[in-house]
Specification:
The structure holds two protein chains of two kinds.
Chain A (H helix, E strand, L loop, with lengths): L12 E6 L4 H9 L4 H8 L3 E6 L6 H10 L3 H4 L6 E2 L6 E2 L11 H7 L4 E6 L10 E5 L10 E2 L4 H6 L8 H4 L3 H25 L4 E6 L1 H9 L1 H4 L6 H25 L6 E4 L3 E4 L2 E4 H7 L22 E4 L3 E4 L12 H16 L2 E2 L2 E2 L1 E6 H4 L11 E5 L3 E4 L8 E2 L5 E4 L3 E5 L11 E2 L2 H9 L8
Parallel strand pairs in A: 1-8, 1-9, 2-22, 5-6, 5-8, 11-18
Antiparallel strand pairs in A: 2-21, 3-4, 6-7, 9-21, 10-20, 11-19, 12-13, 13-17, 14-15, 16-17
Helix pairs in contact in A: 8-9, 8-11
Chain B lengths: L3 E6 L6 H14 L4 E5 H6 L9 H20 L3 E5 L5 H11 L2 E7 L2 H7 L4 H6 L21 E4 L5 H14 L13 H13 L4
Parallel strand pairs in B: 1-3, 1-4, 2-3, 4-5
Classes of the chains: A alpha/beta, B alpha/beta.
């Protein structure tokens, strides 16, 4: 939709994204003095609210929602993986698969410049009115930078896109060294672009928080954990970074309240992994043929549903998939049966799935038809997986932490723009952000 | 398909013509109309007789720019490969042409003197050639080129890939379907997603 000015634009807004940082963790760290700078911002009157995020609750989906202000049914990103249309072949959606404009595009239409650093789901880099350096899952730096002229400066500061997960997984010393180094290069890059770009929107995302949680969420809760202090020290460094960005922004901006800190999902300890395709197979919804049951290409004509990571269930619909046989007339009944099967799932007497959403209820827009029919929401501790051919429903955890749909957060000085009287979702944040710059929210 | 101008600039022998021809080949293979306006060739034809004073250099560049503009607006990709040493004149061409992508082929002067494929630096340093850019004539590097190529540190393939990616990113040339991620990139992405438990 066309944007309209309804007031003179504020000069600037600034966003710090903290990937995967829970509301509850920030609350605790502020109370315990681990994050004094963020605590001071909140104490000075900024709103600090819990949010829920997009479904499924993973970074590529949530950040795509944030950058567009739209739900997945409009922006078309439903996961880190998908299937090539009309096939069973796995695809990896990229920034180019985003089906609608970003807030940076909309700001650009108004000649407002954006600087975007390390936001997931922005690879390969594409033009913005300003500058963009892609985040996860970016592979090559050459394809991660717009405009390309900044590549040399990135190399000069030894810019890294991400840490080497294989290298740090079982090496806490290497993990924390890498996390602090990533924080350093993000700030160094921000420093360059802060000075060189005449920006209206500055956005930097710290993804080290998410990595730390995946590998070492146990070190957060367990005060006797050998790396508990390292965990807290990393958060002290993140907090100091947020504080420095805030100081700098306040010194530069005509409206210092236009400062936002947010996360794209929450996080909790993983206790078990749950193989959703094994559940479907055990209930007869998923049948495979051929030699290799780990390849979706070997799905049988008799299969009525299959799952994709982490929590998406697709009906094996006629016309949508080469061997699909589910007609629309059967869809509702099948969705009911599958939902019941998942809601009945127990481990040691504990319910695993707390809610089953229907795609049509949570997605709206032209891309909704490409999304899953059902999305599962688990109880904390049960990490859903879409792997095929696993013998058991419950599997040993491989990582320490998992994402949550709720318990994400936003902090903003623009309390006047925060919706009152209802819970917030991630989609409220881009709406507040563009409004803080004097523009009409696209999805209002 | 709309045309545009790909404007190479850089010191003598930095690699402009070589890269221009390599990029030309890629674009031709993608079915585009392409013309290369090479600085050396232009000076032998419609700029014949011009010298190397600032005025003559600017005239030469304006002529190249004029032809590039005509080609661009008629759906052709005009690739220019001339030293074009003055920033103001290049910026004038950018403004006149509109769809304009500047590629700065950067190479340290010491490397160029060492490389000296045409023997020109040796002659210029010996005083046998006057007004030689980088020796006794100035070169004003672009402040914000769309592409920065470092020809002393990159392979030709890397530089060409960087230019093509930028053209795709800017939407000046279409992406080849199915080439968003190379097989190697897909493998790298798959590994990262596995490492973090996403697949």
């Amino acid at each position: 939709m066309a944007l309209k000015w309804f007031q003179q634009p504020s000069e600037r807004a600034c966003v710090v994204g903290l990937d995967g940082v829970p509301f509850s963790m920030v609350k605790r760290f502020v109370a315990e003095g681990v994050m004094p700078r963020l605590g001071a911002i909140i104490a000075s009157g900024a709103a600090f609210r819990e949010t829920t995020v997009s479904l499924p609750e993973i970074s590529s989906v949530s950040w795509s929602s944030f950058m567009t202000g739209k739900n997945p049914g409009e922006h078309g990103i439903f996961g880190f993986t998908d299937l090539h249309p009309g096939t069973y072949t796995q695809s990896f959606p990229s920034f180019r698969d985003l089906k609608c404009d970003t807030i940076w595009d909309r700001l650009g239409e108004q000649k407002m410049r954006s600087v975007v650093i390390n936001q997931p789901a922005t690879y390969p880099a594409r033009p913005v009115h300003g500058a963009l350096v892609s985040g996860f899952v970016a592979v090559h730096l050459d394809k991660s930078v717009f405009p390309a002229r900044y590549l040399r400066q990135l190399r000069e500061i030894n810019y890294e896109i991400d840490l080497d997960a294989e290298l740090v997984r079982d090496n806490p010393t290497a993990l924390f060294r890498a996390l602090h180094e990533l924080l350093r290069v993000r700030e160094a890059l921000m420093d360059i672009l802060w000075k060189e770009e005449k920006w209206n929107l500055m956005e930097v995302v710290i993804t080290g928080t998410d990595r730390l949680h995946h590998f070492m969420m146990d070190a957060y809760e367990d005060t006797a954990h050998p790396n508990h202090k390292d965990f807290l020290d990393y958060y002290r460094a993140v907090d100091a970074f947020v504080g420095r960005v805030h100081d700098r922004f306040v010194a530069d901006a005509s409206e210092p309240r236009n400062f936002f800190v947010l996360s794209d999902h929450g996080f909790c300890r993983t206790h078990h992994e749950v193989n959703i395709n094994t559940v479907l197979a055990q209930h007869g919804f998923l049948k495979m043929s051929g030699d290799d049951p780990k390849r979706l290409e070997n799905i049988s004509e008799a299969a009525v549903a299959f799952g994709l990571d982490p929590s998406r269930i697709y009906l094996h619909r006629r016309g949508r998939y080469p061997r699909g046989g589910v007609d629309d007339s059967r869809a509702d009944a099948l969705m009911n049966e599958i939902s019941e099967a998942f809601l009945a799932l127990r481990h040691d007497g504990e319910q695993i799935i707390r809610k089953v959403f229907r795609g049509r209820d949570v997605y709206s827009g032209a891309a909704s038809a490409n999304g899953p029919d059902l999305i599962l929401l688990t109880k904390a501790g049960f990490d859903l997986k879409g792997r095929l051919g696993a013998p058991d429903v419950i599997a040993t955890r491989r990582l320490q932490g998992m994402h949550t749909w709720d318990d994400a957060f936003v902090v903003t000085g623009r309390t006047d723009l925060v919706p009152h009287g209802r819970e917030l979702t991630l989609l409220d944040v881009p709406a507040m952000l563009v409004a803080s710059l004097g523009l009409e929210p696209a999805h209002a | 398909m709309k045309g545009f101008t790909l404007w190479f600039t850089g010191l003598p022998s930095s690699g402009k013509s070589t890269l221009a021809r390599r990029v030309e080949q890629v674009l031709l293979e993608r079915g585009m109309n392409v013309e290369v306006l090479d600085g050396d060739e232009v000076r032998e034809t419609f700029s014949k007789g011009l010298g190397f004073s600032k005025e003559d250099r600017d005239t030469n560049i304006r002529r190249i720019g004029f032809v590039a503009k005509l080609l661009s607006r008629n759906g052709t990709v005009a690739i220019t490969a001339a030293i074009s040493p003055y920033r103001e004149t290049r910026d004038e061409m950018r403004k006149a042409i509109g769809r304009f992508v500047e590629v700065y082929v950067q190479c340290p002067i010491d490397v160029l003197k060492e490389r000296d494929v045409k023997g020109l630096y040796k002659k210029a340093l010996a005083g046998e050639i006057k007004h030689f850019t980088g020796v006794d004539d100035p070169y004003e590097a672009p402040a914000k080129p769309e592409v920065l190529v470092e020809s002393d540190r990159e392979s030709e393939e890397q530089s060409v890939a960087k230019i093509i990616t930028t053209l795709e990113t800017l939407g000046y040339i279409p992406r080849v379907p199915g080439t968003d991620y190379s097989p190697a990139e897909e493998e790298a992405i798959k590994t990262r997603l596995k490492d973090l438990g996403y697949i």
